[in-house]
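User: Predict structure, ligand nicotinamide-adenine-dinucleotide.
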Amino acid sequence: MATNTLSTVIAHRAPQGAFSNEPFTGFHHPDMARAMREALRKVADQLGHEYDLVIGGQRLRTQEKIVSINPARPAQVVGVHQQAGVQHVELAMQAALAAFESWRQVPVQERVSLLLNAAEMIRERKFEFCAWLTYEVGKNWAEADADVGETIDFLEFYAREALRLAAATTPIQYPGERNELHYIPLGAGAVISPWNFPFAIMAGMTAAAIVCGNTVVLKPSTFAPTMAAKFLDVLEAAGMPPGVVNLCQGGAEFGSALVEHPQVRFISFTGSKKVGLEIHERAARTAPGQKWIKRTVLEMGGKDAIIVDSDCDLDAAVTGVVASAFGFNGQKCSACSRAIVDDRIYDVFLQKLQDKVERLQVGDPVENADMGPVVNDLAHNKVLQYIEIGKSEGRLLHGGQAIAAPDGGYYLAPTVFADVAPTARIAQEEIFGPVLAVIRSHSFEESLAIANNTEYGLTGAVYSASRDRLELARHSFHVGNLYFNRKCTGAMVGAHPFGGFNMSGTDSKAGGPEYLLLFTQAKSVAEKLG
Ligand code: NAD
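Assistant: Predicted complex:
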């Protein structure tokens, strides 16, 4: 039977104890720094290779190509990828549907082993994956390490969650019956991922779907295709049977057609509000003969704020704001793009902020600069347009321009605008770049009202020494991920289940105890006893 063939290729592995987060690499240690430099050198020799589509385990080439470039040196090609077109949707879906028939029957321990084997392989080659991230999207060493660490965490966490779910039962046993609850997979689904966490989010969404017994057509971002190709290699080496994940690099046209396919059972998407809403609408339309309501899991943008209260530890607040606003150049859904600062400390906050931002070095992420380039020319132009808007909406405190580089990298100066009105465009719209708006507030209640006054609701933080005010924020700051006296980026799998309110998405809480439920349906079985 097909089930046996599938289950024998995955080497058995059980979780090693309770879940704990992958430790960060201490690059200040000379051995770690040396290992990273070595990996960067090795990966540099592999840049420019061509990668295939992988459908049902078969390698495919296309006429059209997607060329991934290094944002720090746009002339340097990181990888050449095939570009799936609308005609590949049917092929990929049929491969996923065929594999589903056997993968759904593979024992959960086997599916868990696949994730754990993959986690171990990535752990063993951590520096190498960090180096790929540095070249493909411009992450410095710590940012790349966080992305790879989170990838491992998702694999380890969802492996344990799948075992927990498989052991679930009904809350009570009805007298005279045996009652069971089985979380069964949904079917063949689409995973559509963004470029900014091109390893962790792409792998996390995929792993969650397949560990529950679903199969997937994976459509990664066209700006980070190499990370997905590397992940597929890992899954195959870890024993994944053909067709369980079908890698289709492609753009919006392929993505739209995939979402519209009548047999796609679910769409797991992370990306912008605009595309998320479009997918939501498209998925809601039923095609003739369609037998189910497509499930959409949509994680979208943010306009995240940090409230700085008058009595807080100001140095800690400034450090947190700078890390949240300028880490990976503000290209995180959780990035702080609004600092809402109490009038009583406003001027001293600005002074300390300026001092700290001035010390940020912008440069090649290969050399581990604090800030590298933004991801591509589109992002560069878009952020520069917002900077121009900011010049008429606030007082430019720092930055405000592109930084020329000999290799033509897409560098921007960290930019801070002070005295921004809460309703200004740069205080309302997601910029997704290194631009921070500082807003003056006259009371803590006003700070909360300003923080809540956008269409988003993803992350937020409060720096305050007042227990009462923190309690007020706990109840009234309407975001999916709220932090007190720490930065608003850097969610840890398991500790900070991640997902936002309002236009930030469907609040899926990746890395949390309910996430796998989104990829299953619960079947209740009751048997009358003797
Ligand atoms: P994007 O919306 O442009 O693209 C995301 C994915 O959707 C890509 O794979 C893209 O090719 C695909 N896509 C584009 N048009 C499509 C269409 N019409 N149909 C189907 N697929 C389509 O987003 P991005 O620029 O890759 O990522 C940045 C955005 O993602 C930001 O808004 C950021 O806030 C958000 N984000 C959110 C989270 C979260 O957890 N909430 C995490 C990371 C990033």
